[in-house]
Amino acid sequence: MSGPTAHAPGAGQEPPTPLDDDDLALMLLIRHFERAVLDLFGQGKLHGTTHTCLGQEYIPVALAPLLDEGDYVFSNHRGHGHYLARFGDPHGLLAEMMGRQGAVCGGVGGSQHIHRDRYLSTGVQGQSLPVAAGAALHLKRYEPGRAAVVHVGDGTWGEGAVYEALNMASLWDLPLLVVVENNGIAQSTPAALHTAGTIAGRAAGFGVDHWRTDAQDVNVLRRGLAPLLDRVRRAGRPLVAEFATVRLGPHSKGDDTRTAAQLRRAGELDWYACYARVFPEQFEPLDRKQRALVASVVREVDARAPSAWP
CA of 120: how far to CAs of 25, 72, 174, 251, in Å? Predict the structure, then answer.
């Protein structure tokens, strides 16, 4: 299955449809959490590096109700939104990143390497795909009806492990969903300079289904993906779901080489401004509430003692 022709995310789209308060609140929680993370890093209060998902928050929010606790979720270096959409736990995640008591992994995983139940993240590009394929094989054999979901970016398609995993997933009919958050830039390299052909063409080379969207409307995304994920579960056929999205912030902290014009264009495609404009009566009170929530999380976690790990 082929998706729409590639073009800028959000270009020429209809205004978004109304969201449930819970969905919008979750998107806003992720947005303000990420902003706080960048501020805390600037203050020297985080352990290790960090990469935010500013601009991409709607993707894990759209996926969240389609998954259950028995599904595996494999995240990447830009995974705070994936974790928050899965668990709604800003305190534990921030404590992990700050090395404070109550940290999800005792403060040794930091921003990128998180393990909780059936959720795992890694900062190593491409590493999660073969691991996810193995988890999908387990699910096929012992827990039919469940799926393994792995998040990757466009830059990850330069890793050989991606193709080894797709080969096995197709050969063995694995219930594997590959979520591609294609923001068009790998660290500082535009996709046109690092990817020959298309992701759709690469999936087709292994006989793997591909679905592409540039929508940012959570309801539209969820309706489109629901039957496809159901097929992954029932038929055990892998799927590559490609989301054309935008990265608003730097690759990690201050390492953004884009021009001012390119950054303005990215800002014009931001879902945050769109929802604020279209649904101000719903957006503004929820935005204030989540902004205040994140501020309280930062204060509370910052006041905790260091975690027990050295």
Answer: 24, 8, 19, 21
Tokens of 285: 């009170």
Domain-embedded: residue 11: no
Instruction: Specify which residues 72 forms β-bridges with.
Output: 148
pTM: 0.91
Mean pLDDT, residues 66-86 taken together: 96
Two structure tokens written together for 195: 């990817």
Instruction: Considering only residues 4 and 291, tell me which one the structure prediction assigns the higher pLDDT.
Output: 291
Strand partners, 176: 148
Give me 80's structure tokens: 């705070």
Question: Does residue 187 surpass a pLDDT of 60?
Answer: no
In terms of residue numbers, what domain contains 213? 21-302
Backbone phi and psi for residue 37, each to the nearest 5 degrees, phi listed first: -60, -45
Q: How far apart are CA 248 and CA 184, in angstroms?
A: 11
The b/e string for 175-193 (b: 16+ C-beta within 10 A; e otherwise) is bbbbbbbbbbbbeeeebee
- How high is the pLDDT of residue 246? 85
Taking CA atoms, 207 is separated from 120, 126, 140, 203, 248, in Å, by 27, 20, 19, 6, 33
Token pair recorded at residue 193? 């300079």
Classify burial at 245, counting beta carbons within 10 Å of its beta carbon; exposed 0-12, middle 13-18, buried 19 or more. buried
In a domain, 13, yes or no: no
Max intra-chain CA distance, the chain:
53
Chain position carrying tokens 């935008």: 246
Domain assignment of residue 12, yes or no: no
Q: How high is the pLDDT of residue 284?
A: 98
pLDDT per residue over 48-71, tens digit each? 888 888 999 999 999 999 999 999
Provide the domain count of the chain: 1
What integer pLDDT is reported at residue 76 of this predicted model?
A: 92
Q: Is the pLDDT of residue 2 over 60?
A: no
Asked if residue 3 belongs to a domain, the reply is: no
The torsion angles phi and psi of 11, rounded to 5 degrees, stand at -65, 125
Can you give the CATH number for the domain in which 131 is found? Answer: 3.40.50.970
Q: Are 135 and 89 in contact, with CB atoms under 8 Å apart?
A: no
